[in-house]
Amino acid sequence: xxxxxxxxxxxxxxxxxxxxxxxxxxxxxxxxxxxxxxxxxxxxxxxxxxxxxxxxxxxxxxxxxxxxxxxxxxxxxxxxxxxxxxxxxxxxxxxxxxxxxxxxxxxxxxxxxxxxxxxxxxxxxxxxxxxxxxxxxxxxxxxxxxxxxxxxxxxxxxxxxxxxxxxxxxxxxxxxxxxxxxxxx
Length: 185
Ligand code: HEC
Known about the structure:
The chain starts with a helix and ends with a helix. It is built from seven helices and two strands; from the N terminus they run ααββααααα. The chain is mainly α. A two-stranded antiparallel sheet has the order 1-2. The chain has one domain. Strand 1 and strand 2 form a beta hairpin. The site of heme C (HEC) has 24 residues, from helix 2, helix 3, helix 5 and helix 6. The site of heme C has 24 residues, from helix 2, helix 3, helix 5 and helix 6. It comes from Alteraurantiacibacter aquimixticola.
């Protein structure tokens, strides 16, 4: 018995060494969780926050005011966010984040790249309706991946469907007009 124990003890350092010799996997943005929380989410929020409506009480009545980017500079920030989302889709498809996941992971990562391209086109066209609608599709792509690869820990009160967005936006297949009508209810 003692002998077996000491052999085991001898083997441990070898195993530990083998662990050290592995190629370090480069994760440019940290873990998937950090990448999502620090990069993907804030960038998507820039896009989602670009077009929408705010309600204000005027003489006791809710009045909805649509907002959209006004200046070239503001529009440029929206298209830049879309470009970043496409890059993030590429990062997600890289081995650092894709290794050990199923084939569907690569499809979701590709889906993000594709929708980000549409998102950029909408911003370059300075088309608020299109930005709003593509924003809904972006959201659907995020959610599709999260349904298969759910976040390990969700903030309290959040579900997979609500975690990555504010409460009133985006609804995946709504037009800006429908959204405005909906918020008037
Ligand atoms: C290819 C798959 C994939 C896509 C696409 C994807 N995510 Fe994620 N996301 C993940 C995974 C995996 C996690 C869970 C990470 C963990 O908890 O280990 C996650 C977690 C998150 C979280 C929770 C982070 C936290 O603090 O725990 C947020 C927020 C998030 N994603 C936002 C987004 C947004 C916004 C998009 C779309 C623009 C998106 N994700 C697209 C895979 C994806």
